Amino acid sequence: MPEAASATEPSRDCPDCPRLVAFRLEHRARFPDWFNAPVPSFTSDRPVLMVVGLAPGLRGANRTGRPFTGDYAGDLLYETMIDFGFATGSYQARPDDGLQLTGAMITNAVRCVPPENKPTGPEINACRPYLVATLEAATSVRAVLALGRIAHDTFLTTLGLPRSRNAFAHGARHDLSYRGRSLMLFDSYHCSRYNTNTGRLTREMFRNVFTSIQAALG
């Protein structure tokens, strides 16, 4: 029996985005031992920090089934989260490595891997209800870290808040109000290999964002 969708997660065979469905089926045929399905959020109990990426990586989360697991972005993200107390254990780039989040959750605006890591506007819109439901279910979240401009813009659009008043900038903090909740949105360049190799994002720059988050959360 096909897995049913929940309010916060699409079903394993979610049919909403034809292009992503075709890409999913292609890779299920090519790599039957991969996860190849919408990647669910990774969370602790009562998270206070939500990390939002754009979409799963083809050979990362789409392969392993856990956000930011199996590619370079996860190496830097989880190392930093461990150092700042938002995760415990050892990150070994596989979902059974025993790593646990502490007061944090990680999710993606689009839950399925898109071709060339670029979801379309309609695909982002189709997945938006799951991001809304994820945020509304995580009532303890006080801070959100957007990894990259598109994740930042998507999060604001999801909340119905104007991007013009909250422009993306690495290291920026935006104080938001959403349905009676106060949220702090922090921006970082995406922790991709490309950004770190080109120097757009250094390890120190990324850690500085987490220093700001930690200070704001007290």
**End-to-end gap:** 46 Å
The main pleated sheet reads as: 6 strands, mixed
Strand order of the largest sheet: 1-5-2-6-8-7
- The assigned structural class equals alpha/beta
Give the helix tally. Answer: 7
* Helix/strand order: HEEHHEEEHEHEEHH
Plain-language structure description:
There is one protein chain. The chain is an alpha/beta fold. 35% of the residues lie in helices and 16% in strands. The chain contains seven helices and eight strands; from the N terminus they run H-E-E-H-H-E-E-E-H-E-H-E-E-H-H. It has helices at residues 18-30, 61-64, 72-83, 121-137, 149-159, 193-197, 203-217; strands at residues 42-43, 49-53, 87-88, 100-101, 104-108, 143-147, 173-178, 181-188. Strands 1-5-2-6-8-7 form a six-stranded mixed beta sheet, with helices on both faces. Helix 4 (121-137) packs across helix 5. The chain is globular. It starts with 17 loop residues before the first helix and ends with a helix.
Features:
single chain, alpha/beta, two-stranded antiparallel sheet, 218 residues, 7 helices, 16% strand, six-stranded mixed sheet
In short:
With 218 residues, this protein is of the alpha/beta class.
How would you summarize the topology of this molecule?
Elements: H1 18-30, E1 42-43, E2 49-53, H2 61-64, H3 72-83, E3 87-88, E4 100-101, E5 104-108, H4 121-137, E6 143-147, H5 149-159, E7 173-178, E8 181-188, H6 193-197, H7 203-217
Parallel strand pairs: 2-5, 2-6, 6-8
Antiparallel strand pairs: 1-5, 3-4, 7-8
Helix pairs in contact: 4-5
